[in-house]
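Handout, page 2. Input:
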Amino acid sequence: LAMAAYARFSDGETGVAHAATAEREVVPSTGTPPKALDRKADPTADHYAAIAGRWHGVGHQPDVGMDWDVDITIEAGAVGEQVGTVAYPTLGCRGELTRRPDEGETLVIEERITVDPEGSCVKQGTIKISRAGNALAFKWYYPNGTEAAHGTLSR
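Output:
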C-alpha cells in the first residue's frame, strides 16, 4: 500500500497557492515563466492543494489480521502523472503513486511498490483518499478491486 503528495504554486496573478495540475512550459533560452494553472481545465485544483503535503497514519488490513504504519506524500499532478510517494516503515516497503481519474471528491491513486526487500507488500494496488475533517480517510484495494485495508491519515 502506498500514497503521495501534491505540490502548490502561486498563480502569478493573485498570489494564491494552487495545486499544479495543468501542463507547465518553461523556455530556458528566454527565461519565460511557466503558464499559470488553468482552473477551468482542472476544476479539482483547489481540492488537491488542500491535501498537498506529508501524511502519516496506521492501516488496518483485516484479511491478514495486521496493522502497519503508512507515510504518504501528495504532490500536484495530472491524471497519469506521478503525484507522490508512499512508505510502509513497519513492512519495509516504499513506492510511487500515480494519479487516476477522481471519483467525485475522492482522490484515486495507483500504488506501485518499488522497494520491498522482504517481499512483505503487494506490488500494485489502488488507494482512494477522501477528506475526513482535518484528516484523510483512505482505503486500499487489490488489483482485482477487492478492498483490503483502510485507515486515517493526519499531518
